[in-house]
Design a protein that fits this description.
The protein is of the alpha/beta class. The protein is built from 19 helices and five strands. The chain has a five-stranded mixed sheet with strand order 1-2-5-3-4, sandwiched between helices. The radius of gyration is 25 Å and the shape is elongated.
Amino acid sequence: MNEETQTKLTLKDREIILVGTAHVSRDSIDEVNKVIEEVKPDMVCVELDAGRLASMKEQDSWEKLDLIKVFKEGKGFLLMANLVLAGFQRRMGQNLGVKPGDEMRAAIDKATELGIPYSLCDREVQLTLKRAWGSCSFWSKNKLLATLLSSAFTTEKIDENQIESLKSKNELDSMMGELANYLPEIKRVLIDERDQYLAAKIWESRGSRIVAVIGAGHMGGVKTHLEKLSEGAASINTLELEELPPSSLFSKLAPWIIPALIVALILAGFFKSGGAVSLSMLIQWMLWNGSLAALGTILALGHPLSVLTAFLGAPVATINPFIGVGLFAGVVEATLRRPRVQDIEHLSEDITSLKGLYRNRVSRALLVFFLSSLGGAIGNFISIPFLTNLVVR
């Protein structure tokens, strides 16, 4: 047994073998197949949820994507985060001829081949992302977005030795420590909560001998939680981990702070200096807000009508936080430049490069959505000091 990547637990007459993998490792695929063949367990547990398994099996899963519906339902940022993460994993594995999650799929295929039942033990990925986002403070959200964007545009090449080192305990401890220091909320949701969730689902699985295939980063946490479950020191109830965290009072009020402040400044200008100053303030704010939203759309190489929509729609979106300028510009872009079959078919490849992001109509519409929203937000922040100066001078 490889002690770096495998842990055998004997808990209440049950044997549970944890196999820690790197998600784009050919060695992990070989190890998973070997362990299942040798152990011939009663159950194989894998770190997958039903949605991810379906997307891995369905080659046409992207063809069902309705981009306009995504924007209208307010899921643009969530889709973009999904694509960035998928692109990063794909870029790690493309030089090795391995796709993200191939070792999990190999475990399922081997279990099926040997007539062994398998269990999907991970929390639904969209729920995990929503919990991660909801748990972040304002500054953590910005740090997370910056991290996602930097990973999307990095050109760093990762070789096989670097991938295999991700399974080393010392390397993992160092990475987890860095993540906990940089984004503690994200580490808690993506790692700690899922350690608990995975352990509960593995413990619930039938059979006296179980092989559980999980990411190497979860090995220590899952082992600890399994031992607690066997001792009765923890509960297998995961309902709390399957709910979205309640919004804080600040998060409920936050979308209204900027519009309320802008309206208050313009009204203050009216009462202090009259309608001319108030009108001048209104025009200045609309120019800052609309122009930077339009600039963001231009940087995304959006259609000219998408640029115009961003300029005109940004002030409306600011006053009504329930809609964003990205919704206006993104829907127009996706309507005028409807994704082609080739865009859908090549999306997973195109998101791994900056050139591909701009070439693909799906990812470019998402860029229009994101950069127009970012530009409008920056315009609001910049305009506030100017409006304040007009009131106090």
